Amino acid sequence: MKREDNKRSVKRRSSLPGYNYGSAARQPEPEREERRRRAASTKRRRKAAENRTPAPAPKHSAGKFFGGILAAAVLVGFFGFLGSVYLKSEKRVAQAERARNEAQSKLEAQREVNDTLQVEINRKEDLDHIRDLAVNRYGMVQPGQDQIRYYKRVEQGYVRQYENIPKKSD
After folding, report:
1. Which of 10, 45, 57, 110 is the most buried (most CB within 10 A)?
2. What is the 8-class DSSP label of residue 147?
3. How many CA atoms lie within 13 A of 134 on its CB side?
């Protein structure tokens, strides 16, 4: 700034409080000015608030009612959906249990058949039972000592069917 501008600003501000005529620098009192500005802005705000007309209170009774009905409908729908999912899962569980019980009964029946067949196999492998059947049912008799012939085969290996039996063994 120029020196002349400084002089002018001093002259203009000379009427301000806090300036002592004849001093070299101005001594401002910022607290007073700040308080004055705040008071003025507060007055303006109060005046604007007084001039405003209060807005009518909104009527929410109908909106609250329909909002409540909507919320209740959403809740009923949600719980209805959950109930249907639960019922479907219960139905699947019941079907699975029925299928399991049916398979279990088939398994038990098959086990009984297997046990019966195993007893029959064991009975048919029993040598005493076979001897009893041969003697009593088919009229067979035990061979005597003179009827049994032992022989040695020269060739080692298997015996061929319908091969001639040697007449005398050594």
Report:
1. 10
2. G
3. 11
